[in-house]
Structures are given as structure tokens and as C-alpha cells.
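Entry:
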Amino acid sequence: MGKHEIRLRRQRMSARGSDRYRNYNAVLKQHGNEKRIKQITRIFTFFLLIALIVIIFLAITRWEKKQTKPQSKINTPALTVT
């Protein structure tokens, strides 16, 4: 192979590279869609995490209220309530 053929081979665009630039608008549109889906997924995960933390907090506070609930029975030697 001569020098000229080697130079032509290096400068030739591969099919993959030429397809990439030929459909640049399609690639740009797909990139925008993928970016939007990533952002929506990130926001949904963030809100889901906040909701989970709030639910756990409410469950713990209710459990603590049950544990520290005062006795409703009155026990005195002079008075018994039934």
C-alpha cells in the first residue's frame, strides 16, 4: 500500500461517523428527550424520598405518643372509679 492510499484511508469517514453527523437533528432531539426523562426521574425520586421520610417521622411520633400515654385509671385508697 502506497503513501497516497494510506492517507486516503485515514481521511475517509467511517459509516458510523457520517451517520452521526447526517442525523444530527435526530440525535439532538433524542438527547433532549433523554435529558428530560432523567430530570423527571430525579425529581420524582426526590419527592418520593421526602414522602418516605415524612411517613417515617409520623410513625415514630405516633408510636412515642402511645408509649408515653398516661394511665386513665384512678387508684386512690378512698375512691375507686369503675
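Residues 7-67 form one domain.
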